[in-house]
Here is the input.
Amino acid sequence: MGRNRRQQQNKAQYVKIPRQTLRKGIQFPCLLQATIRPIELVDDFVFSPYRIQRRAPGHYYFKNGCMWVPPPEPMGRFLGITIKNNEKQMQFFSGKDGILRPTKKQSTTGRKERTTYVTIELDKPQLIDYIFNPYDGSPIQIMADNRLLLPLKTIIENFYERGVKRKIINKFIYSHDHVYYDANVALKRYDQLYVVDTNTFWHKDRAHISVTVARQAVVTSIEQSEILFELGRCLAFLTLDPEGTPEIEAWKVFIEHLLNATSDIVGRKIGIIVDSELDCLESFNLRQTNLPPEYPLPEGFEFIYASDSSGRDQFAVNKLLAACDRQSAEYIRTLKATPLAQLTSI
Here is the structure.
């Protein structure tokens, strides 16, 4: 009996981890030096606004998420969360003319591992009570002194390794708001969502032409594995021999159009999905620099980066950008066959 009791005690030291945790591979890379204490899987974690006794440092696994409790000492201003093997595919339904059209899932055989990385910047070093990461993609809870913290800056990146440089699939940069790790659920932050795609080509009549297609995207439902969306009416415009960066110039034209044509845009959070100028978007969104030459991004507007070449089976922003890019390509084929003298009438 004594031997059996010791075996049962030893078994109790192993951590019971739900399958979705193993599949997502959730890590806290900046916290790896912490003492990990094995904890049994318990019921759903419920956030309470009332002061509760601080848990012992370690990882805790619940049915609705995982929690990390750091040692009782101040942490730095920057936190990082990595989610590896992010291969979850979404079923997209396009609601056009009242008919739902599901899109096919893509094969993942042989493709490189997808990773999600979330960077969190706090206003000062904090004595963190805990960090709770829900499995349903809802905001991460960072508690300090029994208060829910809203970071100064949050960056969500989805990428895969490609030689010496990462291939960024999509990227969100925003400030003073809840921390998301799921790029699809993060779209709930926005009151209105638009897609803007610009392409430049050389016309046979010896002129550079920049073509921009902009559409409003209405995402009506975001579930665990399904997204229902609809693309609104199209706004297309072209520029002959554009000056500066064609994409940035087009963004400014489109923003001014929204401000002048839309009466309910003031005070709302507007997301604009784009596929260029990745290195500049952070400074634009955080209002550290203006759009060149001197155009300040209006209050409430944010750029979201998305690639049209990958991520279409996983992320709504990539799916929407690819749809807009296809329409732009159709316009370009038409414009190439049109004499330059007639383009001003299009």
About this structure: The first strand starts at residue 26 and ends at 27. Confidence is low (pLDDT under 50) at residues 5-41.
